[in-house]
Write a structure and sequence with these properties.
It contains 15 helices and twelve strands. By secondary structure, it is of the alpha/beta class. The protein has a seven-stranded mixed sheet with strand order 9-8-7-6-10-11-12. Helix 3 crosses helix 15, helix 6 packs across helix 7 and helix 14 crosses helix 15. The longest helix has 25 residues. It is globular. The structure holds nicotinamide-adenine-dinucleotide. Nicotinamide-adenine-dinucleotide binds next to helix 7 and strand 7. The site of nicotinamide-adenine-dinucleotide has 25 residues, from helix 7 and strand 7.
């Protein structure tokens, strides 16, 4: 993985690339390239042995023109101010591309959660929620899970917020467990939209998804669910990886068995029924019909892009392809479905969760999945329309053209004040 590209600069470059095809005034574009507010904090938390440890935390509120800020919370040693700013901006354009009434935000703590006990993680999370409390709320900013956070952390944040506010407000956060106001279908939503995006892209290109070979980098929430649902469509998932390396079977892996193996052992490598193990870079350059990067940003840089041989890339991770790599892939005529559409299932079902929380009425899983499918298929069709109508270089530019237009219209319609 390259550490050269600054994700915030990548985001700004993507916005500039798309703005060139729009008649949005330069001063408005410039406003749409930087966050409205970034909170940076030091959390002082008592460890199990009685010592105090400081943790750096961030929350970036990028744009609220279309609705409350919305976006996940990441726990990772590489979390940085610029990474959080970039991820919050991608959320703005992701919500706009699928046309849900949210702005964009993102948060994170610089921490490797594997080094801490559950009670320490609970205290870190509650300290973070306490710092965030004045700035979040069902109508202000609604966090959600991201890398290394899940239902457990969301439940702690909701509980901390509700205790401090002396209220019940399940809509303050999404990605909660079902018994805490979560939604059916939320856990699988990101992987499901990756599958839907891949299905629509293959259909658009006149290719069969049944029997197509697939390689997936990253086997966490997004990657493993996408793998399972693609396998259910009849695709052959020949390789998957995590931070320990990649496993390969030309006949197709049993994606559920690999997941179970990872759950038991902590990694995909060592899985008995694989034919071979190799590196993540080997996986990214494999000759497959579909490549799904589902780990972290900057997975494919220019050097790797030169060697990519997949026909279609569907981005499950946020920002896995650097702008230089993007140019190379466009030149090589690789069809790439961008992150802001492909992984938008997570935020879309978060939106459904928030709607249900506000209505105090729970939907069935079938309703959630049907509504999600409608949103992703509509968004894909609108993206393809923009791509063809404006003769745009690639689907990423098309996604930003659609999204920037919507955010700029919301801003333009309301004007600026004070
Ligand atoms: P996760 O923590 O569940 O999984 C991440 C996976 O990536 C793990 O299997 C990890 O081992 C693997 N990984 C880390 N570094 C790697 C490397 N260098 N090479 C190969 N694998 C590596 O996280 P997730 O929730 O699945 O998120 C993955 C990506 O999807 C992130 O970019 C995240 O922002 C994005 N995303 C997630 C959601 C969601 O709802 N979970 C929604 C939208 C976008």
């Amino acid at each position: 993985m390259s550490d050269e590209a600054n994700p915030f600069e990548s985001l700004q470059e993507q916005i500039d690339d798309a703005a060139a095809f729009l008649d949005v005034p330069a001063d408005v574009v410039s406003r749409l390239k930087s966050p409205e507010r970034v909170l940076e904090m030091t959390l002082s938390v008592e460890m199990d042995d009685g010592t105090i440890e400081g943790f750096r935390g961030f929350r970036s509120q990028f744009n609220g023109d279309r609705g409350p800020y919305k976006g996940g919370i990441r726990y990772h040693p590489n979390v940085s101010r610029d990474e959080v700013k970039a991820l919050s901006g991608w959320m703005v354009y992701k919500c706009a591309v699928v046309d849900i009434p949210y702005g964009g935000g993102k948060g994170g703590i610089v921490i490797d959660p594997r080094d801490y006990s559950e009670s320490e993680l609970e205290r870190v999370t509650r300290a973070f929620a306490t710092e965030l409390r004045p700035f979040i709320g069902p109508d202000k900013d609604i966090p959600a899970p991201d890398v290394n956070t899940g239902q457990r952390e969301m439940n702690w944040i909701k509980d901390t917020y509700e205790k401090l506010e002396n209220t019940t407000a399940p809509g303050v956060i999404t990605g909660k467990s079902l018994d805490n106001g979560g939604s059916e279908g939320r856990v699988e939503a990101t992987g499901r939209s990756v599958m839907l995006a891949a299905r629509e892209a293959f259909d658009y290109l006149g290719k069969e998804i049944e029997g197509a070979t697939v390689a997936i980098q990253g086997y966490g929430n997004a990657g493993s669910v996408a793998a399972k649902l693609l396998e259910d469509l009849g695709a052959r998932v020949v390789a998957v990886s995590d931070s320990s390396g990649a496993v390969f079977d030309p006949e197709g892996l049993d994606t559920r068995a690999v997941k179970q193996f990872k759950r038991e052992t902590g990694s995909v490598t060592g899985y008995d029924d694989a034919e071979e193990e190799f590196s993540n870079d080997d996986l990214l350059t494999m000759d497959v019909d579909l490549l799904v990067p589902a780990a972290l940003e900057n997975a494919i840089d220019a050097e790797l892009a030169d060697q990519v041989t997949a026909d279609v890339i569907v981005e499950a991770a946020n920002g896995p392809v650097t702008p230089d790599a993007d140019d190379i892939l466009t030149e090589k005529e690789v069809t790439l479905v961008p992150d802001i559409l492909a992984n938008a299932g997570g935020v879309t079902v978060s939106y459904f969760e928030w709607v249900q929380n506000r209505q105090r009425f729970a939907w069935t899983e079938e309703r959630v999945n049907d509504e999600l499918e409608r949103v992703i298929v509509d968004a894909f069709d609108q993206l393809v329309d923009a791509y063809e109508d404006k003769d745009l270089p690639n689907l990423r530019t098309a996604a930003y053209v659609v999204a920037i237009r919507r955010v700029a219209d919301a801003f333009g319609g309301a004007g600026t004040w004070p």
